[in-house]
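Assemble and predict.
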Amino acid sequence: MTDAARFEAFVREYQDLVFGTALRLVGNPTEAEDVAQTVFLKAFERFDAIGTSPSVPGWLKAVTRNLALNHLTRYRRRWQFFSEMAEADERDTPFAERLAAPEPDTLSADQAAALERALAGLPDHQRVPLVLFHFDEMSYQSIADTLGVSLGKVKTDIHRGRTALRAVLSNSHDD
Amino acid sequence: MTTDLRDHGDRLHRALRRLPCPRAPHTLLPRVLAAIARPWYAREWLAWPLRWQVASLALAVLMVTAGWLVVTTSPQVTALTASADTAAAAARVLWRLLVQPVFAYVLVLSTLACLTCAAGWAALSRLDLTGVPR
C-alpha cells in the first residue's frame, strides 16, 4: 500500500472521531470541518511517527481539542467578555425548576438529535467546559486551567449548560 | 436533595455519553486529500511544517531588524527625517490650534458611542435565534 493510500485509510478511520470532537467544541459544522482538516494536515506531517502508534486516537483528540480551542479564541474572542456580562442576570435558576426535569435512562433517536442540537446551540462559554467535562472527562480544575478562567466560573457555566440540556431532554421526553 | 441533584447530573452525563459520535461530512476526506497534495507553502501558515514556521518567523524578525538598521543609518533617510521633523512641527501647531480645544469632548463622545454599541451587541447576542432554550 502506498503512503497516500495508507493516509487515506487513516483519515477514513479517524475522521468521525476528529470531526465529532471538533464539532462538539466549536458547535458549527463548517468550522469543525476546517479544524478537522488542519488536524489531519498535522497528522500527515508526522504520519511516519504516528501512523501505526496505538496512541493515535488520544493524540488526535488532544490536537483537535487544542486547535478547536485556539479557533474559538481567535475567532470568538468576545465570548469570554460577553459571558461575564451575561452572568449577572442568569444567576438565579429556581431550585424546583432544576429538579423538575428528570431525564429518561434511554434515549430515542429524536431525543439524541434534540440533545445534540441543544448542545450545539449552547453559548460557547457553557458548551466548551461542559464538553470538556462530560466527553473528555477533564476535571473542573484542568478545564479552568485550559480555558484560563476561574474555577467558580467553570462550575457555574457547566451548571447552566446542564440546566439548559435537562430542559431539552425533559421537553423531548414529554413530546 | 444533594443526592437528587447528583443523580440528575449522573443521568445527564450518561445521556451525553450515549450520544452517537457525529459523522464527518463526505466533503472532509476529499478536502484533506486535496490539501496534502498541495505543497506546504500553498497551505495556510498554521498548517506549515513546524521547522518552516520557525524559519519564517526568524526570517520576518531578520527582515524587520535589517529594515530598521537601513532606515536609521541611510543619509537619504536622515534628510527625510529632517523634513519629517518640519512636518511634525507644523502638525503640532495645527493640533494645538484646531484639535486640542475639542479633543476632550470628542473623546467623551467616542467613548459613549463605543459603550452604546457594546451594549447593543450584548443585547443582540442574548437573543435566542435558534429556538433552543438557554
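Confidence is low (pLDDT under 50) at residues 87-103 of chain A.
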